[in-house]
Amino acid sequence: MKLSTAPFPQLSVSCPIVPTEIYTDKGNTHASVSWGRVTSQGIRPVVRTQGNAPESSFSEGQHWITYMVKDTFGQTRTCSFGFNVRVRRCSDWHTYYLPNGVISCTNSNIYGSTCRYSCFSGYTLLGSNSSTCEQTGWTDTKPSCSAISCGQPPHVVNGRVNCGNLGYRAQCHIFCNTSGYILQGSSKVECQDNGQWTSPGVCTDVTPPTFKCTPQMLVNAGPLKQPVQVDWPMPAAPDNSNGVVSVTSDPVSGTVMAVGVHQVTFTSMDSSGNKATCFMSVYVQVVKCSSSQLAERFSEVSCSQENIYGSDCRVNCSDNYYLEGDGHRYCLENGSWSGQQAKCLGLPCQEPPEVANGNFTCEQGYNYGEICTLTCQKGFLAIPPWTITCDINWSPAGHCQDVESPDFPDGCPPDMMLNASRLGELTLVSFQLPYVTDNSGQPLDVTSEPHPGSAFDLGVTNVTVTAQDQSGNIATCTFYVKVAERSCDPPNFDPIRKFLRYNCPNGHQFGATCSLSCPNGTELADTITCDEASTGQLQWTTAGNATPSCPDEVCPPLPHPEHGYLECETAITRKRGPLKKCRVKCNAGYSLFKTAKDFVQCFTNIGRWSGTVSKCIQNKNPDKVEVYFKALYNFPKCTKDEANLKMGLLEKNLFKSKLYEVCPIGVNCPVTLTSFCRVSSGIEGQAESVADLEITLVIDLGAFDETFLGQNLYNELELSTQNAVTIADDDGLFDIPGAGAPGSFTLPRLNFSCSGGRVFTSATHSCAVCGPGYRYKNETLECEVCSVGTYQDALMAFACSKCPAGTTTIKSAATSSDLCIEICTPGSMSTQKTGLAPCSPCDVGTYQNESMAKSCVICPFGMTTLSNGSVSVADCQFFNIRLAKDRPLADVTLPTLTSGSATFMMWVHLPVLNPTMSLTFNLDPSVDQTGSAYFTIGHVKLYLDLEETSLIRTWYHVTLILTQGNATLVVDGEAMNFTADELADETSLGFTASDTIKSVVITGVQLSNSILSLEEITQYSQSCHKRLDDNVLMVSKPDMGENLTPLDPELPLEVGGPMS
Q: Which domain holds residue 518?
């Protein structure tokens, strides 16, 4: 077919013209849009390819419409148009949130929509309640919601209203202003939505008037008990309402009332009808006059109506009395009698009788029937009958008896200290008896025990002065006399050599004589005596003019050592004088035993040698000697088996023959070989295997018993062994196949052996025995020293001997039983500070409960033993400690108290006794203590005073319990609490005297760092010898002459009391 070449027909399409902006109708959000016909060239139809058809509803926004035409040849043409659909709107402010209200719109803010406005309850709308969106905008402005307010709340009479705010639903609470009102009705008001408050309650008065009556009213009756008219005022009745109050009484004022009690009732009522009542008692009483004022004693009275108002009375006197005053009297309305008081006076007696040391006191004079009382002067006691009566004559009278003890106004004589007389002579002590006064003024009997001029023993003696008046009253005071031993210094006539020994059986006291001896026991004919020189000083004198002395040779001659000799020399020393020392030398073939000392020294102070001369023992050869050395080989690989194999080759070598050459002829010399492998550092630190071949040659020396070999054998064996080893090595006798010759050899070493309890001594190369002071020990094959408490005096001993019972040695290695010295037993101490004899008994005031003591223990504070040699603290007894103005301190050491609390106790005695006076104690610093005596215990002051008493006491048990600033004072079991300071860590127990208390005696002073109960303290107060287990007081200066006096069993004690 042939194709046509004619051109294609032309295509075209035309779209209608449509406005670009199209607005929706009122109240709509879509618009209906129409347009004209779309034209095209040709006969082909036009097809819409985009957008809706005409007359369709279009939403808000841009829209496009496209049409297309297509011919038969496939050609297409299109046209398009577009428009924007717009919705008219007002501002959205009118549709948004309305505070406290609600918005309701028909179509939001679209043109034509209407919004309506309403408020919540309690709020009101301000403005239009609706607005419509028109083309020009909203028709009305947006309204607002305003809160409703009710204004001020209603007033409540006699009350108040409290409000938080005044708005809708606000509540205000109602309170009545004062007490006496109660709220009736609602207790609150509330703001309503109409702007009005709800109705309030009412404050109603419910309190009656305040009403107070006079409790009672006293009215006097008429004469002779006649009724009387009684008037009274109305009481006031104030009310809380401040309104008018009416007051009435029942009965009414002005009522006539008889004698007795009547009740009046008062009633008050306020305007609210509240009532109150009160009562008053009216006492109509009878007026009475005092019977005692009508007439005095010894009278007869007759009255018409007893003693009441209006009665008349007449007064008459008894026998032996006469009337003075008015005898006819009336009882008046004021309760008094008319006229003058009537008196019946008795007939007078003479003046009362005189009484020695007293008088009678008569308060009413000396008339008939009067009584007078006997009064005695101070120190005198009234003896019945104590009163006398006037009965024309006086009745029998009593008398005044002296009951006061004499007084020592100047106290006791001061304590005396004097030196003893010469040994063998009595020490006579004279003293002046003290001045004594007595209230009786009569002569006194004054004595002392011991009396002046008596002979006094050494030490401290209490002197008790006793004064007795003619009535038998006794007073005592005590002082002490200390007779001190007067003695020479220890004799020392040989200060350089100190050879002399002094035997002084009576010590070194004045008049004592000492015999003399030398260290070796030689007694000298001369004696020395402690005598008084012309200067008054004591010194030692001799019977002759020559100074006693000992010869230089004070030690006994030494025995000559067997098989040896002595080399002695003497040196002069500054302190010890001649000092002789001898050295033991042994002959050839002999030597000292193993532990022997080769010298002895003369101890000049005891005249003895330092030991015995050691024996020279014949030298003995060792039983055998072992010659020992090593050959060292290097192996590439050294195992035990391989080493043994290779060493075994040595058994076939001939090196042994060389060693045998070392042995003496005819002596058995076995050779033993021992090998082992080890690893050692080789060159440059590399490990290599080494084999040690130990070679021991044993030589039996028994064949040489007759000849001592000594040092020669040692040197010969050492040299010959070295030569034999060198030759054998040079000859290759030590070579081992595969290993070669030894790399090195050790030097030969010789070991000697002894038997039979002997020990090898290298100094002499012999077997020596163990000497005295030692024993041979099989386990170690050595000499062992004998320990302390044992000794050995023989040679070659296998055991040490024990010292006898009760003895021991000062040190080990004792060589004789003579060195076993007595042990110091309990109650004694070693004077040489060794624990051994010589022993000295513990002095008075000390004790020792252990054996071998080097010192004695001092008794606790205020305590002493009664004799020498005390063995326990239980032997310590309490001392009496006298404190006075001239001796105010007792030396006491107070240790630090661990608990911060303490219990301090002591016994207190007043030396000058007065049966009518007793001691009182207190700690109260607030009380004026001026002029009081007091103890100072640390920082605490304990005050003492005197008071009169009928209980005779001489000893007082005083306890202080101190804890955290508080103090409890317990005196004889009675406790008192005070505030007090702590005890000081270091202090003294002090005493300050007063005019009335010039001295005191104390004993049983103890201190515990724990708190004792009252029950425990009571137990201690019942015995003067009961001691605290944890007493911490100690004497810092136990000088009995200064502060302590011996416990005086004759010192007056309380009868039946705790002291014994």
A: 501-534
